[in-house]
Amino acid sequence: MALRLGDEAPNFQAETSEGKIDFHEYLGQSWGILFSHPKDYTPVCTTELGYVSKIKPEFEKRNVKVIALSVDPVDSHKGWISDINETQNTKVNYPIIADADKKVSNLYDMIHPNASETTTVRSVFVIGPDKKVKLTLTYPASTGRNFDELLRVIDSLQLTSQFSVATPANWKDGEDTIIVPSVSDEDAKKKFPKGFRTIKPYLRYTPQPNK
User: Fold this and answer.
1) Which residues are catalytic?
2) C-beta separation of 33 from 59 below 8 A
3) Which segments constitute the Thioredoxin domain (predicted)?
4) pLDDT digits (tens, 9 = 90+) for 100-117
5) Are 86 and 76 spatial neighbours (Cβ–Cβ below 8 Å)?
6) Angstrom distance (rounded) from CA 135 to CA 133
7) Which is nearest to 69 in space by CA: 19, 17, 118?
8) d(CA 69, CA 13)
9) CA-to-CA distance for 203 and 189, rounded, in angstroms?
């Protein structure tokens, strides 16, 4: 059964390129991103894993732990990591789950038989400190993910979890936000001391509250 937003992210124990982990213990009180790869030694995945290594400090700034998954054993992962480090001019600095028995892939519904019977799709799960699924994305095996977009999404999720706001289309950190409809104008005056502007009764903009 597919995981839905608000569901608890299933816990699991697994071998990784950095040793055995308990997933929930690994996350601790952090946010998390779990992202899957069809298999080792594939070209698009090589670029993805390399890029995530380079921007890992951006995830750490946001209290986000990243972890990858591929349906190959640890020894294969270690050889592939050497290739990633060499070709992407980086150093892989986070664990890659070895899911040869596809236990985790099936737990998270990462195998879509109509796309491939044997390999995972490019799934992304953003998980909150409460271990609930906050966002899911699914890409076909041929299309690399936009990890800058995932940073943007994390900024929005973390902001909207703390304040009664939503973020508009193409929003970036530092830009105006939208007051959620459940907040009255009277309450908005108290909650948002920077003020707000009303376009329509249901569309009210306010400067980003935590800036």
Assistant:
1) 45
2) yes
3) 3-159
4) 888 998 899 887 555 454
5) no
6) 6
7) 17
8) 13
9) 15
